[in-house]
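anyone else get weird line breaks when pasting these?? whatever heres mine. first is seq + C-alpha cells for prot A
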Amino acid sequence: MARGVAVKSSAKKKGVAFVIDCSKPVDDEIMEIATLEKFLQERIKVGGKPGALGDSVSITKNKGKITVTADPTSPNDRNVYELRYFNIEDDAAGDE
C-alpha cells in the first residue's frame, strides 16, 4: 500500500477589509479624508490599546475611499482560560 502525501497549501488566510467611501462628503467639502484617516488611526484598538495598530491593521486612503485591513489573529489569542484548583487540606482531619 502506498502512503498518502500531505500537501501544504500556500494560500494564506485572508484578513477582513472594510472600505469607507467618503467621495461625496469630500467632493462637497464637508470633510477632509486626511482627518478621518487620522481619527481612525488614533481610535482603532488592537489588543485593548487604542492607536497601537502594529502589523495586524493597516489603513490606506485612495482618492475618496479609506480601506481598513485587519489580518487574522490566531484563535488562541481570544478567550483563553486557565483552569486552576487548589488542594486545601482539612486541618481537623489531620488532628485525628
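and prot B, same format (seq, then C-alpha cells)
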Amino acid sequence: MRYDHIIKFYLANDNYDPDATEDTQGQAVLVAESIANVTDLGTTRAVELLGSLNEQALVIRSPDKVALSSNWSYIQIDDGETHYVKQTTRFLLKEGTLIVGEANG
C-alpha cells in the first residue's frame, strides 16, 4: 500500500475570547499532519455503512495512529479546499483507518 497523500488535521476554534486583540473565533488550528492512503469508499459499501449516497465518502489509512486518534474537527487532503469530517474510526494492528465524509457548510 502506498501512502501517497498528506492529511492535515485541524481543530476549529469556536470559543470567543474577549481579551484577544483580534478576532480568533472560527480560525482553525493545525493539530497534526500524517501520510496516508486515500481511496473511494464505493457505492455498495457506502449504502451499507452510511445508509445513503448523498455525500462523497473516503477511506483513509495511515500508519500514524496518534494523529488519527487526536482531537480534531476536520481534515484536508493534499491541501485541498474540501473539508472532511469523521464518520468511523478503526485501529488495526499496523495502521488506523478512517471513513470520512464531506463537511456540509
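btw re prot B: DSSP finds two helices and six strands in the chain. The chain has a mean pLDDT of 81.
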